[in-house]
Amino acid sequence: MISNKPYIIRAMYDWIVDSGWTPHLQVDANYPGVNVPQAFVQDGVIVLNMAPTAVVALSMDNAWFTFKARFGGVETTLGFSPEAVLAIFARENGQGMPFPPEPYPEELLNGEKEVLEEKPALSAVASNKSKVVESSATVEDGKKKSASKSDKKKPTLTVVK
After folding, report:
1. What DSSP element (H or E) covers 9?
2. DSSP for residue 64
3. CA 118, CA 75: separation in Å to the nearest integer?
4. How many CB atoms sit inside 10 A of residue 48's CB?
5. Taking the CA atoms of the chain, what radius of gyration do you get in angstroms?
């Protein structure tokens, strides 16, 4: 099942804007792949004004949020995954929705992916299951024997977020 988080963020964003309030996102700046101006990060978190008048080219896709905003008068392109969002709220009254922090993906922590600038690219997903058994195994005397049927890995489906 795909995550409902980007859908909820978009719905809350629309509700806040339609109410005439100013939407803000609280983002985990240390989440892998997050591209935000580090000079404005406090305690690993950045709060972003997402008002339609404050951002340009806002795109809130299911896998990646991106937009341009000004920081210190300099236009900057920001990008992050919805998993990095910790809360969405209205500045005027604080109404909104917090989200629990997401665990950092293993493949990003191990440096297998570069920092993402615009949108993430497709890549292979490592399975959490045991490693695939080789089709043949070496015995002590150097001869090879075939792996038994029980040693072979069964095909599985993996959900990619």
Report:
1. helix 5-18
2. -
3. 15
4. 23
5. 22
What CA–CA distance (Å, rounded) separates 161 from 152?
Answer: 27
The full set of domains in the chain, from first to last, is: 5-109 (2.30.30.220)
| pLDDT tens, residue order, the chain (161 aa) | 889 999 999 999 999 999 999 999 999 999 999 999 999 999 999 999 999 999 999 999 999 999 999 999 999 999 999 999 999 999 999 999 999 998 988 765 555 444 444 444 445 555 454 444 433 343 444 444 444 444 556 666 667 76
Cα 63 to Cα 84: distance, rounded to the nearest angstrom: 11
Q: Minimal CA–CA distance to 6: which of 73, 83, 58?
A: 83
Residue 68 bridge partners (DSSP): 56, 77
What is the CA angle 93-96-97, rounded to 5? 150
Running DSSP on this structure, what letter comes out for residue 20? T
Give me the half-sphere count of Cα atoms (radius 13 Å) on the Cβ side of residue 148. 2
Strands 85-90 and 23-28: antiparallel
